[in-house]
Amino acid sequence: MRPDMPADHTTEAERLLRTAARYPEDREALLLQAAAHLELAGDRERATTLYDDLLSSSPANPHLIRSLKAANLWEYGHEAEARAIIEGLRTATPADAGAWEIMAETLETHDELELAEAVATQAATLLTGEASDQDLPHATQSLLVTRHRIRRMLALPHDDWDTLADTLHTAAVPLDELHDPKRLWSLGSSDPVELQAEITRLRTELGSYRTALSRPFPVAVLHWPEAELDELLASYPELESEYPTYRAHLTDIEASLRELAAAGTPNLGIVPATVPSYEAFAASESSSPANADLLPQYATTLAARGRATTWPPARTAACWCGSERTYGECHGGVEA
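RE: above sequence
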């Protein structure tokens, strides 16, 4: 059961703290979750104490923790300290998109839109580089969407990063409409007419989303590109039994799909997997990425979001594995 009341959040925070004491190898992640629950319970001073505790113990991601601490401090009246932390982080130029997004959203929440836009633009300059939209980690993509929203509130014209955010956004409702200032302001309105209009619009969008999800989607198999698989196994060696080698992984994909096709299973597909996306999915399921049972659920979720490509490709088309050979010459060969 998910906690809904402040007392529930306090109880969940206490449970996480007890768990952290038993499993010190997971301490950082567990304390971050506990701090989030304390914030939701309104116990912001205690949440700050947890952030300070983490920062004093050489955490894996100190910049993210500092950004969370700044957001928390500002919420209970410590604006000057929060601003100082944000300025320090901007000087440190962290490589973590999550820290930048939290800083930008904190400033946005407190109506510091110009400064929020400057922070998001500094982050975009630092993190995107020459990468294509396909190479950007999920966290960086999310940052660009946040930047788009802030710039829309400021009525700034689209630039290249806004265009990239539009490209990355695959939902039926475009970002310009989602981030329409009148729409965003109506969500905080006390006018019943404005609120009812927004509820009606959201219901329409939810209906479209449900319709999209109800369409048949492929029975999908995960494909981890070699670099992603290396990162996955380095972070979660427990999954080595699932993926002994990259070559074996590719062979298993083709064999599994052929077996499904032989059994008469229609609408087969392959979905590309990435470590940040998989970690985010595991977090949404309150589980560890090392849990192999999550892998088929992750594949199904990606397929439901339209990320799957149809298998088999045409024999003259590029092979799904990315070898730059045709499917017929690669995994589509008779002996594959």
